[in-house]
Amino acid sequence: MAFLKTQQNRSTTLHSQSDEILGILEKHPVFQAAQTVLLYHSLKDEVDTHSFIQKWSNRKRILLPVVKGNYLELRVYTGPEDLKTGKFGIEEPIGFTFTDYASIDLAVIPGVAFDNKGNRLGRGKGYYDRLLPYIPAFKMGICFPFQLIEEVPADTFDVRMDLIITTK
Protein backbone atom coordinates (compact mmCIF):
# COMPACT_ATOMS: atom_id res chain seq x y z
CA MET A 1 0.00 0.00 0.00
CA ALA A 2 2.85 2.40 0.81
CA PHE A 3 4.35 1.71 -2.64
CA LEU A 4 1.11 2.70 -4.38
CA LYS A 5 0.84 5.89 -2.32
CA THR A 6 4.45 6.77 -3.19
CA GLN A 7 3.74 6.19 -6.90
CA GLN A 8 0.59 8.35 -6.71
CA ASN A 9 2.51 11.16 -4.96
CA ARG A 10 5.28 10.98 -7.58
CA SER A 11 2.74 11.10 -10.39
CA THR A 12 0.96 14.09 -8.82
CA THR A 13 4.29 15.89 -8.34
CA LEU A 14 5.38 15.26 -11.95
CA HIS A 15 2.00 16.42 -13.24
CA SER A 16 2.19 19.60 -11.16
CA GLN A 17 5.77 20.24 -12.30
CA SER A 18 4.76 19.62 -15.93
CA ASP A 19 2.07 22.28 -15.63
CA GLU A 20 4.55 24.73 -14.11
CA ILE A 21 7.23 24.07 -16.75
CA LEU A 22 4.75 24.43 -19.62
CA GLY A 23 3.41 27.60 -18.01
CA ILE A 24 6.92 29.06 -18.12
CA LEU A 25 7.29 27.90 -21.74
CA GLU A 26 4.05 29.50 -22.93
CA LYS A 27 4.99 32.85 -21.35
CA HIS A 28 8.41 32.90 -23.05
CA PRO A 29 8.59 35.53 -25.84
CA VAL A 30 9.96 33.01 -28.37
CA PHE A 31 6.98 30.72 -27.81
CA GLN A 32 4.51 33.61 -27.89
CA ALA A 33 5.90 34.84 -31.23
CA ALA A 34 6.19 31.37 -32.77
CA GLN A 35 3.75 30.27 -35.46
CA THR A 36 5.22 26.80 -36.06
CA VAL A 37 6.41 24.82 -33.03
CA LEU A 38 8.06 21.42 -32.95
CA LEU A 39 6.93 19.61 -29.79
CA TYR A 40 6.91 15.97 -28.73
CA HIS A 41 4.16 13.66 -27.51
CA SER A 42 5.52 12.78 -24.08
CA LEU A 43 6.26 9.44 -22.50
CA LYS A 44 5.38 8.86 -18.83
CA ASP A 45 8.80 9.95 -17.56
CA GLU A 46 8.89 13.20 -19.57
CA VAL A 47 7.29 16.60 -19.06
CA ASP A 48 3.67 15.83 -19.98
CA THR A 49 2.88 17.65 -23.23
CA HIS A 50 -0.42 15.97 -24.17
CA SER A 51 -2.83 18.70 -22.98
CA PHE A 52 -0.40 21.44 -24.01
CA ILE A 53 -0.36 20.18 -27.60
CA GLN A 54 -4.15 20.08 -27.68
CA LYS A 55 -4.42 23.54 -26.11
CA TRP A 56 -2.15 25.27 -28.61
CA SER A 57 -2.97 23.30 -31.78
CA ASN A 58 -5.79 25.65 -32.76
CA ARG A 59 -3.53 28.75 -32.43
CA LYS A 60 -0.18 27.49 -33.72
CA ARG A 61 0.99 24.88 -36.19
CA ILE A 62 2.22 22.06 -33.94
CA LEU A 63 4.64 19.52 -35.39
CA LEU A 64 5.35 16.15 -33.80
CA PRO A 65 8.10 13.68 -34.65
CA VAL A 66 7.46 10.24 -36.11
CA VAL A 67 10.13 7.53 -35.92
CA LYS A 68 10.97 6.18 -39.38
CA GLY A 69 13.87 3.74 -39.29
CA ASN A 70 16.85 5.64 -37.84
CA TYR A 71 15.35 9.07 -38.44
CA LEU A 72 12.58 11.36 -37.26
CA GLU A 73 10.02 12.68 -39.72
CA LEU A 74 7.89 15.64 -38.74
CA ARG A 75 4.14 15.78 -39.20
CA VAL A 76 1.50 18.37 -38.40
CA TYR A 77 -0.66 17.56 -35.38
CA THR A 78 -4.32 17.71 -36.43
CA GLY A 79 -6.00 16.24 -33.34
CA PRO A 80 -5.95 13.28 -30.98
CA GLU A 81 -8.08 11.24 -33.37
CA ASP A 82 -5.22 11.35 -35.90
CA LEU A 83 -2.61 9.79 -33.59
CA LYS A 84 -1.50 6.18 -33.69
CA THR A 85 0.90 4.30 -31.46
CA GLY A 86 4.28 4.09 -33.14
CA LYS A 87 7.67 2.71 -32.30
CA PHE A 88 8.56 2.84 -28.59
CA GLY A 89 4.87 3.27 -27.68
CA ILE A 90 4.83 6.96 -28.61
CA GLU A 91 1.65 8.45 -30.06
CA GLU A 92 2.50 9.81 -33.51
CA PRO A 93 0.44 11.82 -36.00
CA ILE A 94 -0.65 10.30 -39.27
CA GLY A 95 -0.65 12.38 -42.41
CA PHE A 96 1.91 14.00 -44.63
CA THR A 97 5.57 14.55 -43.85
CA PHE A 98 6.48 18.16 -43.03
CA THR A 99 9.79 19.23 -44.60
CA ASP A 100 9.80 23.04 -44.47
CA TYR A 101 12.29 23.09 -41.59
CA ALA A 102 13.15 26.77 -42.18
CA SER A 103 9.59 27.75 -41.20
CA ILE A 104 9.89 26.20 -37.72
CA ASP A 105 10.13 29.01 -35.18
CA LEU A 106 10.75 26.93 -32.05
CA ALA A 107 11.82 23.37 -31.29
CA VAL A 108 10.89 22.04 -27.83
CA ILE A 109 12.98 18.96 -27.15
CA PRO A 110 12.80 16.26 -24.46
CA GLY A 111 15.78 14.64 -22.80
CA VAL A 112 16.84 12.26 -20.08
CA ALA A 113 19.17 14.95 -18.69
CA PHE A 114 20.36 18.48 -19.46
CA ASP A 115 23.08 20.76 -18.12
CA ASN A 116 23.29 24.54 -17.82
CA LYS A 117 25.46 24.75 -20.96
CA GLY A 118 22.55 23.47 -23.05
CA ASN A 119 23.89 19.96 -23.50
CA ARG A 120 21.26 17.24 -23.73
CA LEU A 121 21.34 13.53 -23.05
CA GLY A 122 18.73 11.63 -25.03
CA ARG A 123 17.73 8.00 -24.93
CA GLY A 124 20.77 6.89 -26.89
CA LYS A 125 19.42 6.37 -30.40
CA GLY A 126 20.53 9.77 -31.79
CA TYR A 127 17.20 10.65 -33.42
CA TYR A 128 17.23 14.31 -32.38
CA ASP A 129 20.99 14.61 -33.04
CA ARG A 130 20.31 13.65 -36.66
CA LEU A 131 17.27 15.94 -37.01
CA LEU A 132 18.21 19.15 -35.19
CA PRO A 133 21.13 20.26 -37.41
CA TYR A 134 18.55 20.82 -40.18
CA ILE A 135 16.29 22.98 -38.01
CA PRO A 136 17.59 26.54 -37.60
CA ALA A 137 14.89 27.39 -35.01
CA PHE A 138 15.45 28.38 -31.38
CA LYS A 139 15.83 25.15 -29.38
CA MET A 140 14.43 24.71 -25.86
CA GLY A 141 14.88 21.69 -23.68
CA ILE A 142 12.23 21.10 -21.05
CA CYS A 143 12.80 18.88 -18.05
CA PHE A 144 12.02 18.14 -14.44
CA PRO A 145 14.45 19.65 -11.88
CA PHE A 146 16.05 16.26 -11.15
CA GLN A 147 16.98 15.98 -14.84
CA LEU A 148 19.13 19.11 -14.71
CA ILE A 149 22.61 17.90 -13.81
CA GLU A 150 26.03 19.49 -13.51
CA GLU A 151 27.48 18.14 -16.74
CA VAL A 152 26.18 16.09 -19.64
CA PRO A 153 28.93 14.44 -21.69
CA ALA A 154 28.77 15.90 -25.18
CA ASP A 155 30.25 15.02 -28.55
CA THR A 156 30.84 17.36 -31.48
CA PHE A 157 27.68 16.11 -33.24
CA ASP A 158 25.44 16.80 -30.22
CA VAL A 159 23.18 19.82 -30.72
CA ARG A 160 23.03 22.22 -27.79
CA MET A 161 19.80 23.75 -26.61
CA ASP A 162 19.53 27.53 -26.60
CA LEU A 163 17.61 27.40 -23.31
CA ILE A 164 16.60 24.82 -20.71
CA ILE A 165 13.29 25.28 -18.87
CA THR A 166 12.55 23.58 -15.58
CA THR A 167 10.92 24.61 -12.31
CA LYS A 168 14.20 25.73 -10.71
The order of strands across the largest sheet is 6-3-2-1-7-10-11
Q: What fraction of the residues are assigned to beta strands by DSSP?
A: 15-25%
Radius of gyration, whole Å: 16 Å
3D shape:
globular
Amino-to-carboxy terminus distance:
31 Å
Helix percent reads 25-40%
Order of helices and strands: HHEHEEEEEEEEHEE
Largest sheet: 7 strands, mixed
Summed up, the helix count is 4
Structural class category = alpha/beta
Oligomer: single chain
Note poorly predicted spans. Answer: 2-9
In round numbers, the mean pLDDT is 90
Q: What's the total count of β strands?
A: 11
Plain-language structure description:
The chain is α/β, with parallel strands linked by helices and 168 residues long. It is 26% helix and 24% strand. The longest helix has 26 residues. The N terminus is likely disordered.
Task: Summarize the structure in short.
The chain has helices at 2-27, 29-33, 50-56, 127-131; strands spanning 36-38, 61-68, 71-76, 83-85, 91-93, 97-98, 106-109, 113-114, 120-121, 138-142, 163-165.
Present the secondary structure layout:
Elements lengths: L1 H26 L1 H5 L2 E3 L11 H7 L4 E8 L2 E6 L6 E3 L5 E3 L3 E2 L7 E4 L3 E2 L5 E2 L5 H5 L6 E5 L20 E3 L3
Parallel strand pairs: 1-2, 1-7, 7-10, 10-11
Antiparallel strand pairs: 2-3, 3-6, 4-5, 8-9
